[in-house]
Amino acid sequence: MKGAQKLTPMDASFLHLETRNTHMHIGGVAIFEPSPIGSGEALYEAIVRVIEPRLDVMPRYRQRVAFLPLSLDTPVWIDDPEFNISSHVLRAALPAPGGDRQLQHFISRVFSRQLDRRRPLWEMYVIEGLSEGRWALLFKTHHAMVDGISNLELVTALLDTDPQPRDIPDVRTTWQARGAPTPTDLLLSSLRERLTRPQRLLRSARQTASNPTRLAKALRDTASGLATVAQTIRAPRSVINGPTGTSRAYVFTRFPLDDFKLVKQVFGGTINDVVLAAVAGGVRHYLATHDVDPNDEKNALQALCPVSIRDESERAALGNRLALLLVKLPIDEANSEARLARVRATVDRLKARKQAVGADFLLNLAGFAPSTLHAMVARASLRQIGFNLVVTNVPGPQFPLYFCGARLVEAFPVAFLYEGQRLAIAIFSYMGWLNFGYLSDARGVPDVDLFARYVEKGFKELVRAAKRRRDFEQQVSTPRRPTSRSRPHRKAPARR
Amino acid sequence: MKGAQKLTPMDASFLHLETRNTHMHIGGVAIFEPSPIGSGEALYEAIVRVIEPRLDVMPRYRQRVAFLPLSLDTPVWIDDPEFNISSHVLRAALPAPGGDRQLQHFISRVFSRQLDRRRPLWEMYVIEGLSEGRWALLFKTHHAMVDGISNLELVTALLDTDPQPRDIPDVRTTWQARGAPTPTDLLLSSLRERLTRPQRLLRSARQTASNPTRLAKALRDTASGLATVAQTIRAPRSVINGPTGTSRAYVFTRFPLDDFKLVKQVFGGTINDVVLAAVAGGVRHYLATHDVDPNDEKNALQALCPVSIRDESERAALGNRLALLLVKLPIDEANSEARLARVRATVDRLKARKQAVGADFLLNLAGFAPSTLHAMVARASLRQIGFNLVVTNVPGPQFPLYFCGARLVEAFPVAFLYEGQRLAIAIFSYMGWLNFGYLSDARGVPDVDLFARYVEKGFKELVRAAKRRRDFEQQVSTPRRPTSRSRPHRKAPARR
Lengths: 496, 496
Prior knowledge:
Two copies of one chain form a homodimer. The first copy, chain A, has 496 residues and is of the alpha+beta class. Chain A is built from 13 helices and 15 strands. Chain A has helices at residues 9-16, 40-54, 100-110, 148-158, 183-195, 199-210, 212-233, 257-267, 271-289, 336-352, 359-366, 371-385, 448-477; strands spanning 4-6, 25-32, 63-66, 76-79, 89-93, 122-128, 135-142, 248-256, 301-308, 322-329, 389-394, 402-403, 406-414, 423-430, 433-441. In chain A, the strands form three sheets. The first copy, chain A, has a six-stranded mixed beta sheet, with helices on one face. A six-stranded mixed beta sheet of chain A has the order 8-15-14-11-9-10. In chain A, a hairpin with a 2-residue loop joins strand 14 and strand 15 (433-441). Chain A binds chain B through residues 39-41, 44, 82, 84, 87, 90-97, 102, 105, 109, 113, 116, 118, 126, 128-129, 245-247, 442-443, 446, and chain B through 39-41, 44, 82, 84, 87, 90-97, 102, 105, 109, 113, 116, 118, 126, 128-129, 245-247, 442-443, 446.
């Protein structure tokens, strides 16, 4: 259809999953040293002049979603004729002293509000007022537009590998919106397409389209049926689950990547296994302070870990290619080493089975179900999967990046919450650091900073265990050599 | 009912009128000189310590709204056991240079997002980073909680008339939430109350409660019936009307009060008449630049002017007591003096008829209609009234006020938009200045700053005409005295 492109079923599901309380945007914050270009208005203008020409090759960023009448088919992307970059790249500042805490509060507030669906589904804040003249870029993009990895690729595409600021073009963009199809166009095109499909699907589409009451009833029956199934197999409730509210709380922490590598080298597994073991330890400590017995089997938790299933040839394409691993966290295990061993065993078993629960189910369903039905099924099936929290881990570059001549000091990702979830952890690595971003429902889990400290504690237990084991093995294998203490420990960026 | 108090029908209507796109919060910004208490965290802590004890006498500020099952009756206020002042008094900062423009952008963004209904319906931002060390308080409160005037009274109750900072109590508050009624309590209490009402109403309530399908049908019929009526008598469409979006644009301007007084003295009428004449001039100029012929009778505009009908004995009570004047703006009139004369004639006629269209109608209806029905009727009837923009004018103190020892330099009000509206003007006077706050739908009226400049132009035309008339009359009546030029003209606060 002229000027309109259907959302992939997976991308559409992120629109359908969004409610008043659960906003499906993701993002991250990038913190920079002072720029040679200057600060304030001058820096903002330079940033807009860098970004605007790039939008020519990223059409989504000037497109908005158009929904079909009666939600009879998947929504489409159409050019937004009223697109104005100054509504998407915004200026902001932190109150004094402009440290981590003030930045985290600002991010909490930005991620508490839904993106306006009548505009392209992204925002970027140029934040000044960070301590020591630093500044930050905060990205917020709808998950229907990008997944965690393609989001990251776009951000890194903006960045330079050289401290020299690139030439900033001084040309006005020549972009012109293509004419958008009318609602009737969209409806006709959708019906036309259905005619090419198997007869059974066509009949069902006709029935639902011609009889709104029957559609409503079908939806109610489907939803209640799925809800009943969901009740029987859902993950156990805990303080980190319950009705999700609108407001978010966000904190971040940083860990030296070398410490993760040490644990991995000593005990085996992947960085991601170590992350999950640290999180399991954090959950164990956190639940104990909330009068939940972590040793009781019925309080066990399931973590949903999105895994990219895109191959290298798809790296440039936008959109989502995700599989979901569902990992039971061994929080009933008091010993950190044993926690890691159990995480490894679970993840290895899931990988061997190529388990990609949820994603495939959704993709298959979404291909033909009327859109509203799909929304309800998507919600119900995610509940049915039964997970308690999301842990998502995206590797980043281990070399320095620059923007407008300013060095990127560090970057933290921001995840999102599904309905019924109150905690999600996103992880991003850069320049020898593993950066954790914790997003919580501000009312359900108001002490997300405490949770973050407990994950730190869970990880430090692992590091201590790994060091003890390494020292012990070195003594056993080479008893004459002194214990190695020479592992270089990276200096942390100043914590403020 | 224990721990629950019904909203007045008028207050409830502001909840019902709220949609995803039209948020019914109002507020204002107060700009202060530097405080002797300091800035940043220290000032914020002092402000919280001033505000928190005052909440004991303003119970609404710790209460949230509870809705009845099936919206069968008016919602009630209940104490929020999770109330936490740090979720309501927030810190923020402006980007450099911290002038009017940056402040206006910040306000636009804050007023673009809906208040969270699961919390007490207010927010206050302590904003730093204004030029010359100034800082600001931004208030945002749901219209269901306060009207423009009681909002103002609460704000001024916070302020001091003395530059000496008042003693800041160093005690923890002893407030405890009262137990909230359960949904069943609310429903039973509502039904019990209905039993004391006339039989006909009871029957209708029982019927709608027992038959959701019939209720839905009744709502559809009512809504479509009212919509049909509305179509026939609604005010003419113009660029400042149309579907309302979520995003707001906000600008403010300032006028010397003496200039308004001069116009009023020379031509007669009230300050409010002069305001409406200036706005009429602004609309005339603005429409002309948008290819609308202001001289064409069919492009005439209606302004809705809320007028307080509370008497002095009610000043301490919260809630809304409003009547609405509907003033046709003489935008087809090229001469500013004639515009004012026509505004005066219209307003005098309305006042003589004690016209209070809308408000009474809503109040009467709301007393017994099931709540959802009421919401639809409220929306339909406001459309039916047929107005194009809102102009609301609240007088403020003409003596200096202080907060935390800092002098209040100036204050600007923020209005709200009804469904279908794209422009609202709120006016507040303080210390010899009349301060205009213009709120627009950011997509429908993106050039609200242009509109504000045209109102300024419309007003300057009036001032010039008044000066000419005064000078002429002085020459005629006292031909031997030289023209008076001695009227003291107040020095404007620096414009940044």
